[in-house]
Amino acid sequence: MAPVHGDPCFWQCGAMPANTIPTRIRWAVDFMDVQPTDHVLEIGCGPGAAAELICGRLVSGKLFAIDRSESGVDRTKRRNAVHIESGRLTVRQIDLATLRVPVKRLTKVFAFNVNLFWVRDCVDEVALLHERVLPGGSVFLFYEATRPEEVPRILERASAALTGGGFRVSVIDQKQPAVVGIIGRR
């Protein structure tokens, strides 16, 4: 049962009503099929909505969420205090290039609207992911297709980055919600 505004844990635990999770985030987390034992890295955790959903599915698995933004990290920590306390969630203010993942091996990596993979050279970051993702694991790069004219370039550049780093790439184009995704499988 989701906490309500009158519940003291709503404010103390940083919980938010479930309906504040955007449809695109719900869809992406469902698409990734997070399992109870998964070890997941979220790149660009923002307000923590995806972390809330992912941690709710974990039992012995862990989520390591990162963001370059101090406010994004703070918002994720407030919203997901109960998951941090349980040990299922670690949140850090850091960029992917300087990350040292505390999990020996990741089963899934997730990013939503993180432009790193299509705006600049990210060879080192993709190499780090390839090193840390287990064989059979996946990298999920999702983009909300609010600017359709950008989609071909995003798909081309992000796919090339993952392919160049040793991942097998597939593309999804979801109409409702309007999301495109690049999945890199190791």
Helix content: 25-40%
Order of helices and strands: HHEHEHHEEHHEHEE
Q: What is the CATH superfamily classification?
A: Vaccinia Virus protein VP39
Largest sheet properties: 7 strands, mixed
Structural class assignment? alpha/beta
Q: What sort of overall outline do the alpha carbons produce when their principal axes are compared?
A: globular
Q: How many DSSP helices?
A: 8
Arrangement of strands in the largest sheet: 3-2-1-4-5-7-6
Number of strands: 7
Please give the domain count: 1
Q: In percent, how much strand structure appears in the residues?
A: 25-35%
Q: Kindly, what is the distance between the CA atoms of the first and last residues, rounded to a whole number of angstroms?
A: 36 Å
CATH class: Alpha Beta
Q: Mean pLDDT across all residues, rounded? A: 88
Per CATH, the architecture is 3-Layer(aba) Sandwich
CATH topology: Rossmann fold
**Which stretches of 5+ consecutive residues score pLDDT under 50?**
1-19
Q: Radius of gyration, Cα only, in angstroms?
A: 16 Å
